[in-house]
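User: Just a sanity check before I run the rest of the batch. Below are the structure tokens for the first item. I only need the designed sequence back.
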């Protein structure tokens, strides 16, 4: 991967962790299955899904720019 893609992937990962850490209840933070179950039923799930769509769109644009 190019440096730009690696930086972008790192930022995405850090953002996802920050969302999880600031919204998931403390009691289930260490239980990955419980975290995913909670997120699936919480309104934040929609925001996360929208963020992933925007991330994928940005990644496609980066690839298109690099392809010329």
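Assistant: Here's the designed sequence for the first item:
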């Amino acid at each position: 991967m190019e440096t730009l893609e690696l930086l972008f992937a790192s930022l995405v990962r850090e953002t996802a962790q920050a969302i999880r850490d600031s919204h998931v209840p403390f009691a289930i933070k260490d239980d990955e299955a419980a975290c995913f179950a909670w997120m699936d039923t919480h309104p934040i799930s929609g925001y996360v899904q929208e963020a992933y769509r925007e991330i994928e769109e940005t990644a496609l644009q980066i690839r298109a720019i690099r392809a010329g």
